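Supplementary Text 2. Reproducibility record for the structural model of the 265-residue chain.

All settings were left at their defaults, and a single model was retained for analysis rather than an ensemble. We include the record here because the model underlies the residue-level annotations in Supplementary Table 4.
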Amino acid sequence: MLDIKNTTTQRTLFRISATGVSFATCLVVAFYLLPTASAYVASSTSYRLQADSINMGGTLSTSTSYRAEDTLGESGVGTSSSASYAVKAGYQQMQSTYLAISAPGNITLSPSILTTGGGIGNGSGTWTVTTDNAAGFTMNIRAATTPALVSGGDSFANYTPAGADPDFTFSVGAATSEFAFTPEGTDIVQKYKDNGVACNIGAGDTASACWMPLVTTAETIVTRTTANNPSGGATTLRFRAESGASNTQPIGSYSASVTLTVLAQ
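Retained model, structure tokens:
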């Protein structure tokens, strides 16, 4: 049984247990909400100016304990709002970006996996991201180790797709054990979309299709280029561990540490 639960530090833990072999899988989800400009008025290869202001004068004053910036010549400044809009006018009234994540509760991976004879365990969780950033956001995932699912010197191998694209159908050899994931949702990147028989082609999103390994390099799984406030957008991550019919999986406590990162674009 695979349990995922959140802690106050936004750490998500989940466990696998099975008859004859015990697995403990730890999924650590860290959300990095980095402020990023959604629009800009000037740029080069090394900088971006999010906003500018035309004034008659102004100074920048600093000391060891304060920093003050002022300006002259502006009128009509301040913040105005109603039920349908918000306006910030005047010097340094720059746009702020709202980005929120709702993480899943407990998840159960079932059925149990036997030490001998093989089996498949499945589990899933849904993350909902809400932002008013006009340029949207990206979501990345990466594992802390290779292979991702390990217990001392034993492991479930990282899933091995047939080619560069994800495998539409999850397939493990009879004498092996492997661990994989797949994302689902309206904002998943093209790589995980399908045409019903193959991945990285078409615009479909077939359930439990397009499997890839969890690797230590950050993998972009979601890209959205517009705001989605206030409804937000959900992304479901499915996880699967399988031991082949002729494989003998050593008994142990298997764990994987995974980081999920959401960034405003």
